[in-house]
Write a structure and sequence with these properties.
Radius of gyration of chain A: 22 Å
Oligomer: heterodimer
Structural class of chain A: alpha+beta
Number of helices of chain B: 11
Number of strands of chain B: 20
Strand order of the largest sheet of chain A: 15-12-14-13-18-20-16
Bound molecules: flavin-adenine dinucleotide
Helix content of chain B: 25-40%
CATH class of the largest domain in chain B: Alpha Beta
Number of domains of chain B: 4
Shape of chain A: globular
Number of domains of chain A: 3
CATH topology of the largest domain in chain A: Uridine Diphospho-n-acetylenolpyruvylglucosamine Reductase, domain 3
Distance between the termini of chain B: 27 Å
Structural class of chain B: alpha+beta
Strand content of chain A: 15-25%
CATH topology of the largest domain in chain B: Uridine Diphospho-n-acetylenolpyruvylglucosamine Reductase, domain 3
Helix content of chain A: 25-40%
Largest sheet of chain B: 8 strands, antiparallel
Number of strands of chain A: 20
CATH class of the largest domain in chain A: Alpha Beta
Amino acid sequence: MTGPLPPRLERELRSVVGADHVITDPDRLMVYESDGLTAYRVAPRAVVLPASTEEVSEVVRLLHGADIEIVPRGAGTGLSGGALPTPDGVIVGTARMNKILSIDAADRLALVQPGVVNARLTEATRPHGLYYAPDPSSQSTCTLGGNVAENSGGPHCLKYGVTSRYVTGLTVVMAGGEVVRLGGAGHEASGELDLVGLFVGSEGCFGIATEIEVRLLPLTEGVRTLLGIFDTMEAAGHAVTSIIGSGLMPAAVEIIDKATIEAVEASIFAAGYPTDAGAALVIEFDGTEAGLDADADRAERCCLREGAREVRRASSETERAALWKGRKKAFGAMGRIAPDLLVQDATVPRTRLPEVLAEISRIGERYGLKIANVFHAGDGNLHPNLLFDRTDAEELARVEKASHEIMSLCVAVGGTITGEHGVGVDKRGYMGLVHDEVELDMLRRVRRVFDPGGLFNPGKVVPDAVDAGALPEVSEVAS
Amino acid sequence: MIAAQPLSDLLPPEALASVDSSPLFGGRPPEAIVRPASVEEVAALLSWASREGVGVLTMASGHRVAPVTREGRFVALRMDRLNAIEAYEAADLTITAGAGAPFSSVTRALGENDQWAPFDPADVAARSLGGLVAAGESGPLRMGYGELRNHVLGARVVTGDGRTLDLGGRVVKNVAGFDVLKAVVGSRGGLAAITSVCLRAFPRPEVDRVLVRTEPTVRAAAGLALAVGTAPVLPASCVVVDRLSERGERAALVVRLHGSRATVDEEQVRMERHVGVPFEVVGDVGTGADAASSESTRRLLEGVRDHVKSDGTVVVASVRPSRLPRLLEVVDRLGPLALSCDAYTGLVRVEADPERITELDLLRRDVIALDGAIRQERISSTAMRGSADPLSPHDDRRDASAAGRTALARRLETAFDPAGALWPART
Ligand SMILES: Cc1cc2nc3c(=O)[nH]c(=O)nc-3n(C[C@H](O)[C@H](O)[C@H](O)COP(=O)(O)OP(=O)(O)OC[C@H]3O[C@@H](n4cnc5c(N)ncnc54)[C@H](O)[C@@H]3O)c2cc1C
Ligand SMILES: Cc1cc2nc3c(=O)[nH]c(=O)nc-3n(C[C@H](O)[C@H](O)[C@H](O)COP(=O)(O)OP(=O)(O)OC[C@H]3O[C@@H](n4cnc5c(N)ncnc54)[C@H](O)[C@@H]3O)c2cc1C
């Protein structure tokens, strides 16, 4: 069933969350038609914005009773269509659940609502000498609920690990509105199954996380940032292997390719990278001051040995920001050279980076597409960005074909189809590359463990014969 | 009704070991001990067991397996023939090995490239890779390196009804589908039999500095440990033991700092300044350290790690670190013969006085009041007491959602093992 909500249900929802927090006006719904994967757009029937666990529970109970699908949503920065509405569904957004509930400095824990923006948690804990480690490049906007659902990473996850390492407990609203508390610091000895670990990365398909307990780390004392300039992408790739292979433990190792450098330098975000370079490598070390210079020296030697033309080193926070600028502003800069951007995401064993990057560039040539690479090289986590215009259906078809080839390539060298952006709707079609039917069936069974009726985010993550038709293919949307 | 099929129809004779009457199973031996040499044989066994209604007790050495108190037919599944190092990609820092491979052999292989897997739960040297992952215990080094579950990159497992699943992969970042692998880590043979595991490896730190501070009581040492826990540096581990015989049988706080020599020197200064007391440098392990001192330091570390002997009546309890002093008071009522405490996670392991273990149910109430958890880890083979299945997980919290949590766990077990073939998954 699509169209407006039954009036009685709408009234009930408004009485739970407040009249202003149920959005049904088509103009206001437009904002929610897509997430960061803009090629797909579907209008939701309504958006509900609860403010507490109790309100979420009541809202879910009402929607469940009316058999209406629920799509959880944080900030909508997801890049795989996880928060894309379903045509019959209602969005339950966490925008009003943005409170940091407690900071326990002695135990280095924080309890937050899911709508808290990632960067805000670090700002709030800094006065305690603490910070929240996972730092997606979208951290100034994305929410911790979204991070939990996607098991997000970020540049510094090379050293510190991704979201799942930091989530110790969750409060979750399940399909019938039931509230379940999973894990929690201090429950180490319980011997229970790791339901927290299983929930992290569930992409809104298991339930809505309404409270999140995370571990914090002590602020690091010092940082050293290097920028290695290379003539070729291949040399930069070898430098990554050489740095990691030397036993160094950098906090971040990010690659920016030629196409991205050109885009950045031609934009208002110009970072002073040489435009004739084949690739740039941002390398960062953090930790106790003593020893950082020695680490930076060793990394510099690795770069020079692999043929770096130049290695710059930041000597102030301003210079550090400048070295990072090309990396951080890459997506914004690409917006200038093409109307649409498909941020691909895949992981390969680090040592295979040079050959995979060379092959991706050949795929781009074969399909006549511009592909710009900017990614978490230390983890082997690629982000080939395919630039296109979604009003051009023929080009869009080439984007899809090229994406498929890139995914097959990554899988063939021992990698996988997504390292941090999730499957959502975008990667459903590629799941068969990494999972056989038995495994896909297992994923469906596990989903039913949490959500037997398939109320949450149907059609996402696991290709399912029953709901495959529920969401349009990208080319249909565009045409 | 199809006639019962004998196991010997399915498996080659080499895969069927003779059954000894080891006390391992609590005096009730299995009808067969199966030692498969391939994942296919494991799958054949489990689908057979599911069809025939026979229980399967998965084990490596079997020393962490509960005494069998259940009724009904069962076989033991031993993984020791699945013990090969299948792939070691040193440059990618990943290693894949059969579940039956001794963890020590994995460590040895990694050591050849100056790498290691930083997991140090008690008895780790005697564990199999699969047993370690099934137990899901990281050990105190999780303070500096994170938990085991975050470093298990992939595993091949066979579900209770014989389906083979490749979970995860061989890359460090992977979100292609729900993270089912996380649930298998720590599931103690209750969801699936693990046949091989891919682990993330780490470069060995240049220096592994071991610092000790002895104190007259465990509580005093724990107080210092909490101070270390708020220092502006993150040690690799921070452990309290109730006595360290090398140091005159006093309670001790043992802190490890990992990194380059310059880093470790400075972190030690910063930590001591924060805590307000000096530590004794027992020694450095690692390149450049003096060989003899390195060896004696290594022995001290092993002593600390295995301080609570696993063959006793072991109880584990946990609370948030800041509540450790109160938890220590509670477990004191077990008349601890040995105690160790991981200050980072607030986890205490005690070898209880077998006469006092009956107190456990009373202690549970106090631990719940601290919002913690307590469980008996192992029954000594000489003193088997306690409730019917004392090693099974307890959901200690009596909060409103306990029932919901238990229901989820049961449904998850059913998704993996519809016929309930895997023992000791359920009571
Ligand atoms: C410029 C840019 C850079 C990015 N860089 C990175 C990066 O470095 N690393 C990285 O990992 N990702 C990155 N991303 C992707 C994205 O930011 C992350 O996936 C982020 O975690 C999404 O958070 P969100 O709040 O926007 O969630 P949304 O996009 O709103 O939702 C994402 C998914 O989470 C679900 N969800 C949201 N809240 C909840 C909840 N409370 N309970 C249950 N499910 C919920 C939704 O249903 C959906 O499936 C980037 C995106 C952009 C646009
Ligand atoms: C010769 C020898 C003698 C020992 N003697 C003693 C002793 O007397 N007392 C003592 O305390 N310790 C003893 N140990 C040490 C003890 O065996 C280890 O500490 C540890 O318990 C063994 O772990 P494991 O890997 O063998 O796992 P196990 O003890 O076999 O199993 C641990 C848990 O994991 C599950 N499991 C194991 N493997 C798998 C798998 N592949 N897939 C799924 N689930 C699995 C089991 O079902 C169980 O729940 C001894 C070790 C050896 C080698």
